[in-house]
Amino acid sequence: MVIKDLEDYAKENHVPIMEHDGIEFLTNYIKEHEEIKNILEIGCAIGYSAIRMAIIRDDIHVTTIERDQERYLKAIENVKAFHLDDRITILFQDALEVELDDKYDLIFIDAAKSQYIKFFEKFTPLLSVNGVVFSDNLLFHGYTKQKERIESKNLRQLVQKIRKYIAYLEENPDYITKFYKIGDGIAVTKRR
Ligand code: SAM
Question: What gap in Å lies between CA 75 and CA 165, rounded to an integer?
Answer without folding.
Answer: 28
